[in-house]
Amino acid sequence: MTLSPLITLNDGHTIPQLGLGTWPLDDDQVATAVVHALETGYRHIDTAVKYGNEEGVGNGIRASGMDRGELFVTTKLDGQFQGGDRAAAGLEGSLTRMGLDYVDLLLIHWPLPARDEFVSTWKTFERLQAEGKVRSIGVSNFKPAHLERLLAGTDVVPAVNQIQLSPAITRAADREFNAKHGIVTESYSPLGGSGASLLRAPILAQLGEKYGKTPAQMVLRWHIEQGLVVIPKSGNPERMKENLEIFDFALEPQDLAEFAALDEGPGAGNDSDTTGH
Ligand code: A2P
Q1: How far is ligand 1, taken at its centre, from the CA of residue 62, in Å?
Q2: Contact by Cβ (8 Å): 234, 24
């Protein structure tokens, strides 16, 4: 069975470099998916309050019989939990729904800069971490300008920034900023998201033939080789297995360079100054 390698975060905890994304699976679908994933070798599950499937994630974990200590569970608090102390109630709700005593990683789901509450929210996150209900704390969809403000006004540097990232949406400046500050970049929609054309790009099939791998495996290897944490979503057991079988080969530098042709440029992807929830 393949297990993902671990990456060490700036707080000393480790995160499996590859995990299972769970949006938009519902409670029933996700419970089944989590059982399959854990049987296949996944040890890292990514959810969010907003996905509405935390109960299913908890059910899947329990049904698998896996030791809690072997798992890495991430959840995210959306805008309803921003400001003042609201994140404390948010985390309690997530723990109750999942039936867990702690989460491994808690993220601010979106910066929502127009609301201007992410700095006070982060202070609550710092307290929750000190209380032990969450091991690591981080953010999602934060741009460098948002992080600058966070870093200037708070004590703990986020362990992770989870952003929309793929060979089509590369966000080089964001990744550079994260790396400079010791923040691990985590890629969501790493395969381009559902319905995306990325996986149909002929170059991926061509390169895949050389390595005996599928287009999805080529894309996931692109993430891994750049030190990114990656959470491909699949509800399909075969594709889940396929997505984990990427640790037995490496891309040659000239092949990695070929991915540049897939880059849609700096304007691609969502803009968290104006979107989010
Ligand atoms: P499915 O759940 O039916 O497997 P992302 O992780 O970028 O959001 O992409 C998720 C989308 O890619 C889902 O539609 C998922 O469908 C599909 N997908 C996941 N793994 C693979 C794979 N190995 N090959 C093709 N499509 C995949």
Answers
A1: 25
A2: no
Q: Which tens digit of pLDDT belongs to each residue from 142-165?
A: 999 999 999 999 999 999 999 999
Q: Answer whether 32 contacts ligand 1 (Cβ < 6 A).
A: no
How far apart are the CA of 234 and the centre of ligand 1, in A?
A: 5
Q: Is the CB of 52 under 6 A from ligand 1?
A: no
Q: What is the CATH number of domain 6-262?
A: 3.20.20.100
Q: What is the Å distance from ligand 1's center to 117 Cα?
A: 34
Q: What is the pLDDT of residues 46-102, one digit of tens each?
A: 999 999 999 999 999 999 999 999 999 999 999 999 999 999 999 999 999 999 999
Domain limits, the chain = 6-262
Query: Cβ-count burial of 247 within 10 angstroms (0-12 exposed, 13-18 middle, 19+ buried)?
Result: middle
Question: Any idea what the Cα angle at residue 34 is, between residues 87 and 168, rounded to 5°?
Answer: 75
Q: Where are the alpha helices (DSSP H) in 3-85?
A: 27-40, 54-64
42 is catalytic: no
| Residue whose C-alpha is closest to residue 228's, from 185, 179, 193 | 185
**Cα–Cα distance for residue pair 112/29, rounded to 1 Å:** 30
**Considering only CA atoms, which residue is closest to atom 11 of ligand 1?**
194
